Each structure stands twice: as structure tokens, then as C-alpha cells.
Amino acid sequence: MPHKTFFAFILPSLIAMVLFIALPIVSVVVQSFHVEHGRILVQVESCQPFGGCTTETRVDTAAMAELREEQPMGRFNGFGTYLNRGHLAVDEIGAILANNNGIGDIVTRIYNLPLYKALAFTLVFCFVVTPIAMALGFVIALAVNTVPKMVKGPVIFFSLLPMIITPLIGSLILYWMIQPNGIIGANLRVLFDDPTLSLRQSPLLTWLSLLFYGVWTNAPFSFVVFYAGLQTVPADTLESAMIDGASRWERIRYVVIPHLAPLATFVALVQLMDNFRVFEPIVGFSAEANATSLSWLIFNDLSGDAQLFGSAGATSVITIIGVIILLSPVLVRTWREFNHKVV
Amino acid sequence: MKLLLKTTVSLGVLCLTAGAAFADCGIEGTGSVRILSNDFEALRLINSTAEECAADGITVTANATAEHKNLQVPALSINPAEYSVAVVANNSIVPLMNADLIRPLDDLVAEYGADLQPNQLIKIDGKTMAIAFMGNAQHLFYRKDILDQAGIAEPKSYEDILAAAEKIKADGLMEYPLAASDKPGWDLAAEFVNTYLGTGGEFFAPGSAELAIDNENGMKVLETMRALTQYMDPDYLTFDANGIQAEYKAGNVAMMVQWGSLAGDMLDGEGAAEGVVENTVLAAAPVIDGGTTPAVALWWDGFTIAKNISDDDAAASFQAMVHGISPEMVAANPTVATWLVKGYEPGPNAVGVIATANAGARAYPMQPYMGLLHTALSAELAEYMAGSEDAAQALADVKAAYDTAAKEGGYL
User: Whole-model pTM above 0.80?
Assistant: First the structure.
């Protein structure tokens, strides 16, 4: 295809990408370098239905409007927001490393900083859920592939259900089921013979429930892709392997898996990206006490009475950088394979 | 024939009363009234009463949504504003004040506010900025039957509550006699703010945004909050106000500090186990540490009028809202809320809130940076409440998180 035709062909999507992806990211980056103007405070008298009148502090709105007129973006803060305690916390980490009681103390105290606490759960979620969900999806795909044609449609539909359900609703459903009076929670109490067992009280059990939910909701995506891939496995190769006396396991190991390997790269890429943005289950499970994620931090900055746009912007940029770092090994591999094929 | 006659007569009466409502409202001139409010029964009632004012040249629309706090600042920032009326509370008026989005109401009060009582006017810097119409507070709900069985009188303080809980547990009457809305987030932070108000301490150094909770009062509050949790269901960190309401209704809880606005729902008793409702007593919120101030915040709900709208719209909006909170509406619906309106006779659901207010509870602070402290508390107290951190560390974390946010917000 001549370059000109190619360019004309992708121009509409290029424009859409710049408008809806590139520009918003630029605006988030710019936002993250700014903080609010210093507030000009005044003392005024305020009267309420209870307790009568008191002297209270207010923001001088007229003076603030002037400041905002001059500099609508707010005060330039450079990397200040990135380095503060809410984000990379360089000063705090420096203090911890300079003065501590051994490794355990360092880990506990760093885990006490919001970004690192969130990062810990986010990474564990990524690296536990992605491989398990992919393996589970692959096993389901193999199983469905051997089901008689007649029932295949319904079986596929049911296997896809976790993906069809809105994540927030899905997590709420599971959350209700693991409550002490829910079907799973009550049965676990009987099973472990522990009437005080509750999946919601300890950090470990909360994490396990969240990871379980992650696998449940992510497996169908892997299943769909692998199932589609299974339809392209060459029948000749499989037959010749059978003639050579290969067992079902050997056929999967030496024919199917190598054939699906490039697909697995693709699935891993998408899933890692998705799982790094884990958010809904934390809200759905009311798990904020024991598990937070980067996306939850952004949500927390933007909800409530006082919104911190600079802080949310900085966390967003850190999330984007995190996704790039996570994906780089896979991207590099894809790039090498691509070059290899061209040569 | 008789039926037909009856129907005609009742229809006629209906038309007449509807007509009377129109006539009652009597807004002069033209204007558009657009209300933004939170979503609960009392506010929906006010909205629908205000909507009666719709007439020739007057349109009234209302949007009652739990997301009102996120909508109000952007919606009132544009010119003309998306909503002409924002219904707010002590805390949600602050962002509107900070951004100068609401107008002083003194002229409108003088012209159309004959029915309003002086204590309904929220005055800031001498100017009326909001008209309050209902009060709310958390207060004690307790089960008289359980306390009688344990031989305990009505608890007046958190120390009483702890002693009562110990006795109830020891007597085997209930395993988890207490409940509180300790869910990390807004609820948990509100619990801290409540209890801290009871100590008489101030949250900030006078006249500045410097945090001042890192003291004995702060420690005492945290210790009390954690001491209470040993008598709660182990899942206490996942319960919000609705969660503890359900637990209490199920008969699992003997004492809790719960919202006055949920007292009506409790007394209705929908979904409650047998014996819960008739044995429930509503009492003033407990005091703490030998103090005399109830350890809860008082709240008011009121309406404000947007700045970025025409004077006609503002006048129409004010009149429609005054009609919405009229003494007639309150007289017809006395049990929906604890009204601050003229002629209101408190019903059985309001005794707790009124006892709390009479005992001298303090209002939820309205400082412009209080929202930042609330957010810092909501995230940083969770680990302490879960038992994985000590109180001193929790207070230090709150201070560090608040300082970071306040610097970013331009207050420090």
C-alpha cells in the first residue's frame, strides 16, 4: 500500500486517537504539575440554627477570583505533588531508610504510605490473577471444545456470564454471598467449624476474596480468545500426533500450546493492563480498610467535599507509567518477533 | 350512578385542592426553578411540594440525587447555572462558599420570607447565605428489654455504654451488643469527628488551617472508638449506617449511635425482628470522658440560591422553596424529619435529635478545610480500627495526610 493511501486510510482513527486519548493525557500531565492557589483566609461571623453565632474562617472569594483570573491553572508546583507523602513520598522513605529497626520495620513503615500500600495490592492482584485466570480460561476452552455440538452454545454462554455481568454488580453479588449469613460465608463456617470465621475481617482473607473474584471475572476473556484460537489448530498435525501415539496431554503440550503461544502474549498484555486498573471489587467488597489500588486512590482524591485534581492527576500519570513498565517485556518480545518475521 | 357521582365529586374536590395549591403558591412574574438536592425522603417531599408552584411562566424541575455533592460545583459554576437552587448541609455548603457560587438572600427573605423563623437563617459574615429547614444528628438507639434484663439504666456516656456492653456480653444476652458505622470512608471519619466534638477540643488552631487533633483528646477518642469495637461483630469495618440499621433491626444489637433521620424508618419497623421496635428507645447521644457535650455533630439541611442566574429566576426559586418548606407542608408530614419550621410539633421519631440538640451538641465544623480533614481521616484511620496500628501512629498519619492535602489545596 502506498504511504499516502495508508495515511488517508488511518487518518480518521488517528484524529480520534489524538482527540480522545492523547489530548486528555496531556491535560492530566499538565494538571499534575499544578496545585491550588494559596487561599486567602478571612475571619467572619457565622450563625447557625444550633449554638448561635461564632467566628469562623472563610476563604476570601473575591481575592481568590482575582488570583484565578491571572493564573487559571493554579500554582505551578513542578514535581512537588509527585514527591509528596501522598505519592512517591521521597522524604518519608529517606527518613525511614535513615532511621529504622531492621527490614521488617522498613517494610511496615513503607507499607503505611498510601501509594505503596495501593501499589502492593495492585501488583499482587496483577501477578496472581493474570496467570491463574489465563490457565483457567485455557482449561475451560479445552473442555468446551470437546463438548458435543448440541450443548456447545449454552455452555459457552454460561462460561461467559462473569464477563457479561457489570464488574461492580458482580463483586457485590460475591460480597453478599461471602457475608456470614450468605451462602458461601455460612457454609465456610460449617466447613471449618469456626462460628466466628468471616472473610471480611482480616487483610489476608479480604485479599484472597478479591483475588478469587478477579480470577472469576477475568477467566472468560481468556476462554473466549483461547477457544477461538483452538478452532485454528491444524487438524492434520493433531491427527499425525495421534498416529504417533501421543496422549491427549502430549497433544496439548506439544501441539496446542505452541500454536496458541502468540495468542497468550496478547491475552497477557490485555489482562495485565486491565488488572493494573483494579477498582470495582475494592468498592464492591467494601475492602478499603485492607486493600486499596492506584485507581481507588484517584477515586478517593476526586470524591468527597474537597477535590484534589493535582493529586489525582499525579496518581494517574504514575498509573500510566506503571502500565508501560508492566507491559514493556511483552511489548519488547512482540517487537522482536515482528522484526524476526519481516526478516 | 352512585359510584359515578362519587367519582365526579372526589375528582372535583381533587381539582379544587390542586387549584388551591396553585393559588397558595402565587409566584408573581416569570422564572425557572431548577432544584438540585440529595436523595432522601424529606428532600423529595420538599421538591414535590415546590413543584406545585409550576404555573404559567413558572417552570419547576427537581433533581434529587446522591451524587449532588459532585454535581453542585460544576453545575453552579457555569453561567447561567444549571440549577437555580442547591439544597445543602453544613458540609456541602462549604465548596459552594469557597467558589463564591451562591447569592446572599437578605433581600429575598425581607420580601418573601414572612414564614421563616430567625434561627432558620444561616448567616455568614452578616449575610444570609442559606435557609435551614431540618436538623439531623446521630444519637443513641437502645433496646430497653435487653438493658432491663442486664439491670442497667439508660447509658449517658461512652463509659456507660462500654460497661453496659460488658455486662450484656457477660450475661450471655448478646454476643455483639454494640454497632457503629465504622466503614472506612465518610462514615468512619464522621465517627471520629462526632466523638472528638464531645471532648470539647478544636480541630484546628484558631484562625489557621493548622491541624490540632494530635493531643490527649485525639488519643482518648481513638481509644474509645477501638474499645467499642471489641463488643461489635468482627465485620464492623464493613458496616455503614444502613448496615448497622439492618443489624439492629435483626435484633443482633442492643445499643448504637445512629442517624436521627433513620429513626422514622426504625419506628416503622419494616423488616425488623419481633420485639425490636417496641423496645427501642431513642435518647440523646452519649458524652465522653466526663464531658457534658454530646459526642456527635449537629447537622442542618437547607437551601441556597445560585449566584449565576437572573434575578427573576432567583426570586421565583426562593418563593418556590419557601412554599416547599411551608408550615402547611410540615404540619401534614410531621414524622418525616426533625423540622426547624414554624409550628412543628416533634413526633416520636424526633426525640433523640431534640434531646441531643438541647444537651448542647456542637454543629459539624464549617471551616473551608474541614473537607480535607474528613478525607484524611476516612483513609488513615482504617488500619488503626483494624488493629494493625497504634493510636499515636494513626494520628500522625492523619496529620501527615492532611498536611499534604492542605498544602496542595493552598491552605497551608
Answer: yes
